[in-house]
Specification:
single chain, little secondary structure, NOL9_C, NOL9 C-terminal domain-containing protein
Length: 101
């Protein structure tokens, strides 16, 4: 029924609308917060979520190889400047809090 999360015991034969990552669950309001490139109008028609394993992480790599074929939010190969664009040097001379004398 509406408002309940059901688990299917076997693989369903259904049209796949796309991939998404559940980033949060609000049981009080009955909401799932999903990161997905699927359009909201299409997502509103979705009535089933299928659980995937670690192999689900491969589509962002595909997006980096051919970004014109796959639309994946928050993934880019073009970040060459700005925060997080380069590797950071480890600072091994810092002590953890609570270990200072």
């Amino acid at each position: 029924g509406r408002g309940r999360l059901l688990v299917l015991g076997r693989d369903p034969v259904a049209e796949a609308l796309g991939l998404g990552l559940v980033r949060a669950v609000d049981p009080g309001r009955g909401l799932l917060y999903i990161l997905t490139p699927v359009a909201p109008a299409v997502l509103e028609q979705c009535n089933t979520l299928a659980l995937g394993g670690p192999s689900v992480a491969s589509p962002p790599i595909v997006a980096l190889i051919d970004p014109d074929q796959v639309s994946t939010p928050y993934v880019t190969a073009e970040a060459v400047s700005g925060p997080g664009a380069r590797a950071h040097k480890a600072r091994k001379n810092l002590q953890r809090s609570g270990h200072c004398s």
